[in-house]
Amino acid sequence: MLGVSQEKLADQLGLTFQQVQKYERGHNRVSASKLFQIAQALETDVAHFFRGIGTSSDSPAAKGERDAFSEFLAAPEGLELVQSWPKVPAKARRKILGLVRVLAGGEE
To answer: Which of 37, 50, 51, 80 is the most exposed, fewest CB within 10 Å of its CB?
Structure first.
């Protein structure tokens, strides 16, 4: 969301970008002190990483939606689409959504 690459974040943390990838993918655990450093590097508070956890919206359906949204944003094209979407006229957005549904194998 901030446009910070894994490589840039890794440099700020004194890590390799592969280590940052392992944190992001959940292959390695993140210590509390490292999480604090990550929050500082991203200019946010640690609580940002825990928003929505343990709330009533933790139903399996809500979790699935969050996972799908996170996966979408993790793709470079997903973030670019989110940033560009408000600039697309409403009529065109409906047509684009219809096209995406067809391409995804759903019905329009």
So the answer is: 51
What values do phi and psi take at 82, rounded to 5?
Answer: -60, -40
**Structure-block tokens of residue 50:** 């825990």
Question: What is the DSSP annotation of 10-67?
Answer: HHHHTS-HHHHHHHHHTSS---HHHHHHHHHHTTS-GGGGGTTTTSTT-SHHHHHHHH
Which residues, including other chains, have CB under 8 Å from residue 82's CB and lie 6 or more apart? 73
**pLDDT tens digits, residue range 56-79?**
555 666 666 667 777 877 777 887
Name the residue range of residue 37's domain. Answer: 1-51
Q: Which CATH number does the domain housing residue 42 bear?
A: 1.10.260.40
The gap between the terminal CA atoms of the chain, to the nearest Å, is 30
- pTM above threshold 0.90: no
